[in-house]
Amino acid sequence: MYPSAFDYSAPGTLDEALAGLAEFGDEGRVLAGGQSLIPMMKLRLAAPGHLVDINGVSELSYIRESNGHLAVGALARHADVAASDLVSSTNGTMASAAPWISDPLVRNRGTLCGSVAHCDPEGDWNSVMLAVGASVVARSASGERVIPITDFVVDFYTNSLEEGEMVTEVRIPKYSGPAGGAYLKLERKIGDYATVGVATHLALDGAGNVAEAGLALTSVHPHNLKVTEAESMMVGETPGPDLFAEAGAIAARSCDPDDNVRGPAEYKRAVVAEYTRRGFAQALAQARGEG
What is the pTM of this model? Predict the structure, then answer.
């Protein structure tokens, strides 16, 4: 099947791109990596009237530190994140997830910001962002909004962008003390969507207790799921196997996986519980400087 007819423009600056989105209204769609949009267009699941190709907007190609957070621009590819020494030294959850994103072909072309904006419940990045407390920068011709990821992810393939807006940056808080994280993913083959994915984040206070906990799940709910009950329960507690097992049990109860060819719901819940326990154990080892 071929896509429906569409118009195309390739602006050279961000201002030009935003002006185009304002002009085209709900017919305009941003093209960055295209690893989700183009297949959807070929299947006619999406039929934008005008593609705004931002690949010439070089000012959006960056991964950098800024005002206490790690900033990832809209043209930073998955492969850039995976290869970034800055990412590996500042956020264990992101560093753990980056090599798991699809396959080398997709990682070399697809973008982190595009994946976040797509809000695919089987996508890995939004679980990571929910676990680490990220924010999304949305720009339009009329201004800028900084949206907490918990408000940005609305539902199944649904975000909170308004007409004329595009994601220009994702901001991830930097560690302010001992911290670590992990992303564990069960997949049938390399490059497949997750059967189950679990993102964990853990920060310790001066006494070695849990100061912050982040936990989010992939592919076991209609949208990427932040397990706030488990996160709240862990704060102030002494980290260890019993606490992590309790968090895993809460996560397994909170999700809503389907029975399908990838396995029965009961099996997926068991994986959620085990990956939660393992992920927090890895995060704790990083926070203590043990791994």
Answer: 0.94
